[in-house]
Amino acid sequence: MALSFIKRVFTFGDVPADQDGQSGHHPETAPAVQAELEPKPRHEELPVAPVDPVAPLEIETAGGPAADLAIKSDADEAAALLPGAEDTSELGVVPLSLLEAEAAAGTLDADTKLQDSVSEATAPQTVPVLPKGFSTARSEPETVTIVPPAPLSWFQRLRAGLARTSSQLTGQIAALFTKRKLDDETLEELEDLLIQADLGVETAMRITGALSSERYGKDVSGEDVSRIMAGEITKVLAPVAKPLALDLNHKPHVILVVGVNGTGKTTTIGKLAAKLSGAGLKVMLAAGDTFRAAAIEQLKIWADRTGSQFIGTKLGADAAGLAYDAFEQARANKSDVLIIDTAGRLQNRAELMAELEKIVRVLGKLDPDAPHTVLQTLDATTGQNALNQVEIFRNVAGVSGLIMTKLDGTARGGILVAIAAKHKLPVYFVGVGEGVDDLEAFEAEDFAQAIAGLAH
Q1: How far is CA 283 from CA 275, 400, 439, in A?
Q2: What whole-number distance in Å separates Cα of residue 337 and Cα of residue 244?
Q3: pLDDT by position in tens, the chain (length 456)
Q4: What's the rounded Cα separation, in Å, for the pair 384 and 430?
Q5: Which burial class, exposed, middle or buried, applies to 109 when counting CB atoms under 10 A from its CB (0-12, 13-18, 19+)?
């Protein structure tokens, strides 16, 4: 059957003579094979298509069978669908166009998934009804709003700075007057207690005298003593609580800052410069402490921070010469205020005190009224020693006003009351910390109430 189909489709020409000659014999076809090759009529009836699909095609038998129709693979179909498909038969890599198309398809899938997830998230969720005794926990933590603390007022900061002084003093007073009437023995004990608190003999006698005239022979509480004590301290401090007067008709207004080592002169100068420059004044700082390199650098930092002009010299140079140059430069620059730092010195060092006198003489030659203000910084932690320091510096440099520092680091803040009662020098500022805002103008009533532990 197969051989008959081949014979009908393919035809072969006669074998050339030369080939027959080469073979040397003519094979004869066997009768059985010949009979098999003979065409046989087909008797079954097959369905015939109305149109023969092979009819339009011509099969050339001379050159062999016609080429089969190419079957397109999946890759060929994808290349035909994609624009600008590239031939990869030689490159052996995936074409860029195909990668871009796949990436775009992946992006679409991702967007579809994202939209589905958003739809699921925004869809209303059914909350199950729990039985009694149960509750649904919050899926999200509660938002806690952190409110910054309100800034403290000056009196609050002053009271906090004097807390050690007031707590010790009021605690001892409360223990003294627990269920006890005011008599001579109690008054004497109170006077000793006030003197030990560095309030001074004069102030202690004023307080006990006022208390005796008001509450003698009666029951007295610690609150009564604190109230009377605050009133008497206010009377002592009120005359010395004055503002620092600046004569801006004299330019520059020279402020000379003096004091022993460690009283905070350089830091106080920086804080004063911050206040003055913040008010729009033109300030110059002179590093007259030529014995300490750290003081020069520290004052330079304060000048940069406050926008003030700065003048300094080499370590160990003549401080009086620096004061002269600073005054001339400040006058040329039309500075409003010139603040001169000086080296810390002990009041018992005669040679150092003589150098301070020299600075004052040099400034006096440039301006008869200079220095216009001489400020002395006092460290509250020194206690009774501060009394002697004021007396000596007042005689040498002509101290005209005081600044009490470091009140927050001691329980002996009452020394300011004793100094005011004895020397009656103006107290311009008090400091209760290292910050710029921790140096404020001295208020007698606020200080008295803070040291007595009373509310404002």
Answers
A1: 10, 20, 18
A2: 13
A3: 555 544 554 554 544 444 444 444 444 445 555 655 565 555 555 555 555 555 554 444 444 555 554 445 554 554 454 454 444 444 455 566 665 666 665 555 555 665 665 555 555 556 667 677 776 655 555 666 676 667 777 677 777 777 888 888 888 888 887 767 888 888 999 999 999 888 989 999 999 999 999 888 888 888 888 999 999 999 999 999 999 999 888 889 999 999 988 888 999 999 999 999 999 999 999 999 888 888 899 999 999 999 999 999 888 889 999 999 999 999 999 999 999 999 876 656 677 778 888 999 999 999 999 999 999 999 888 888 888 889 888 888 899 999 998 887 666 788 999 999 999 999 999 988 777 878 889 999 999 998 888 876
A4: 18
A5: exposed
Which among 243, 304, 314 is positioned nearest to 273, based on CA atoms?
304
Distance, CA of 60 to chain centre: 92
- 8 Å CB contact between 264 and 296: no
pTM of the predicted structure, to 2 decimals: 0.65
Query: In the sheet that 337-340 helps form, which strands lie side by side, from edge to edge?
Result: 309-311, 283-286, 337-340, 253-258, 373-379, 401-405, 427-431, 439-441
Asked if 292 contacts 367 with a C-beta cutoff of 8 angstroms, the reply is no
